Backbone:
């Protein structure tokens, strides 16, 4: 579905009409479909309706006899007999829903293709989810493609969240990027970094290594992150980027800091809103530029942008396929496949805590 084909008549500072940097890349204007979206934490859903959205389509969630259900019409509209009955609910008024990993997942697309096998595998969370303390919500004022690109650039940790995650003074810093027809993965390995202020209170050593891996599911925006400072913080994070509109992305995050020191384990979720507001501070002003005002000048990419550029390539290929009527998944990018190796979850640690299985 094309959300908004018309570009606003944007004029750059120099007065010339802008052109897109990446040919054919139009974030915020195409709704990739046939995917499960983790719209909210299941533990927060009771009988009282909660409103969410995917690509502007309204979703009213509630529990009926303990089961999570999602309607496209508000309770008041249903009482009054006003029904939308869009293609997304196949004329039933009810979105396909499913609960796993502590999330209520909603299928956006053709209902006939809504198989639970297509729920992304999240090897860093227990099947039933984490206790409520480890989850929360952040809303970003920009389109979800921009957040996905941000999460694929984990070098931004060094300048945006440096107090907690460390500065760029590494002995070595290596980025690897890989992709499938549905996902993009970035792994950053940086060695011998000074321990940042925010970790000094529980790390005795002066130096630490960092391995940070992000797997992004391009259709749904679900990001799976393994960020491991050794010695130091060790955090598994599920960071959904659910596209509510081109100006609003909802992240119902879940941490699993099981390998952290106990004090740090309970501290980290409290830092989420600070970290999230730092990201929003950087991304909100970029949103319009990212979608509409890209300059005609060449983009100044560095080798650290490889993952973001790969994301645009996979995204564009999915858009072309969907425009031609192909909504299927290929084996290489099946969301249910095992991504433990991609996230480097079984890597031995200096500290000897090698048993990382859940
Ligand atoms: Fe960030």
Residues:
């Amino acid at each position: 579905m094309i959300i908004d084909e018309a570009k606003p008549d944007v004029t750059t500072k120099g007065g010339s009409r802008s052109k897109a940097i990446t040919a054919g890349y139009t974030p915020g204007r195409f709704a990739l479909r046939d995917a499960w979206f983790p719209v909210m934490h299941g533990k927060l859903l009771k009988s009282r309706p909660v409103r969410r959205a995917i690509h502007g389509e309204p979703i009213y969630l509630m529990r009926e006899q303990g089961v999570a259900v999602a309607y496209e019409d508000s309770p008041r509209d249903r009482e009054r007999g006003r029904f939308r009955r869009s293609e997304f609910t196949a004329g039933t008024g009810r979105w396909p829903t499913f609960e796993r990993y502590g999330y209520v997942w909603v299928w956006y697309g053709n209902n006939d293709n809504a198989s639970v096998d297509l729920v992304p595998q999240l090897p860093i969370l227990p099947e039933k989810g984490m206790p409520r303390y480890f989850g929360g919500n952040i809303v970003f004022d920009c389109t979800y493609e921009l957040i996905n690109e941000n999460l694929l650039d984990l070098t931004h940790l060094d300048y945006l969240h440096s107090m907690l995650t460390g500065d760029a003074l590494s002995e070595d810093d290596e980025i690897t990027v890989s992709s499938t027809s549905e996902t993009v993965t970035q792994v950053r390995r940086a060695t011998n970094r000074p321990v940042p202020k925010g970790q000094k209170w529980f790390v005795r050593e002066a130096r630490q290594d960092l391995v940070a891996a992000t797997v992004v599911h391009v259709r749904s925006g679900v990001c799976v992150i393994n960020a491991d400072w050794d010695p130091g913080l060790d955090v598994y994070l599920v960071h959904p980027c659910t596209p509510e509109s081109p100006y609003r992305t909802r992240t119902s995050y879940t941490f699993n800091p099981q390998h952290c020191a106990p004090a740090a384990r309970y501290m980290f979720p409290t830092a989420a809103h600070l970290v999230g507001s730092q990201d929003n501070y950087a991304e909100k002003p970029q949103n319009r530029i990212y979608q509409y005002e890209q300059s005609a000048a060449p983009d100044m990419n560095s080798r650290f942008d490889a993952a973001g550029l790969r994301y645009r390539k996979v995204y564009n290929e999915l858009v072309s396929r969907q425009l031609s009527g192909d909504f299927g998944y290929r084996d290489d990018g099946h969301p249910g496949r095992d991504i433990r190796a991609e996230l480097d979850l079984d890597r031995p640690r200096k500290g000897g805590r090698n048993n990382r299985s859940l």
